[in-house]
Each structure stands twice: as structure tokens, then as C-alpha cells.
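Ticket #4471: structure output looks truncated?

Reporter: J.K.
Steps to reproduce: submitted the chain below (117 residues) through the standard prediction queue, then opened the result file.
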Amino acid sequence: MNLLQIDAQTWTITLVGWMIVFTALVTLIIVFTNIPRLLKFKFKKTKNAKSNGKKAEEEAGEKYISGDETAAIAMALHLFFEDQHDEESNIITIKRIQRRYSPWSSKIYGVRNFPNN
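Returned output as attached by the reporter:
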């Protein structure tokens, strides 16, 4: 096939396809190079120390959980996750079965057995 015989639609489809692929690759490069910056980006809250001093102390008091509460939560989680598993007998049985004869697994029908002419 000669290059002059290829019509204009073929060239248009080819160029559009190449442009789509290269645009997608450039977009992916930009996204992947900026992911570490996005992960390190921290949202800062602007607080006025004088007006919000009491609120910060109140919030800090609410976040404290006593040891008794922590133990109760841990015990509840332990009991919940332990109850999800079935009790098993822990006995393993191995049964041998006889395989049927199959010509597909027979060595006499191998590839290298050529008929004699």
C-alpha cells in the first residue's frame, strides 16, 4: 500500500488518537508528580489565642478517656470479634478417591508419537 493511497480520514483518526494518548500521559505525569505535595499539605486553622484559650482547654478535656473506659471498650471489641468465628472440630480428614481414566492425561497420546507411514 502506498502512502498516497491512504485517505484523509485515516490521517485524521491517527493524529487525534496520538493527541489523546499524549494528553493523557502528560496529565498523568502532572498528577503523579503533585501527589506528594497534596499529601503533605496541611489545613491550618486560624485561632486567636486570647479568645479561644478556654475553648481549647474544654476540647482537650473532652478527648481524655480514662483507663476504665479504655478497658471496657477493649473488652467489648474482643468479645465481639471472638464471637464472629465458628467453632471447629480441628480434625483433618484426607479421603483418597480413585481417578477415572481419561485419554487427555494419557502419555500414550503424546505429541511426539508420529504415525509410521
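Triage note (M.O.): checked the attachment and the full C-alpha cell line is present. The chain has a mean pLDDT of 77.
Status: closed, working as intended.
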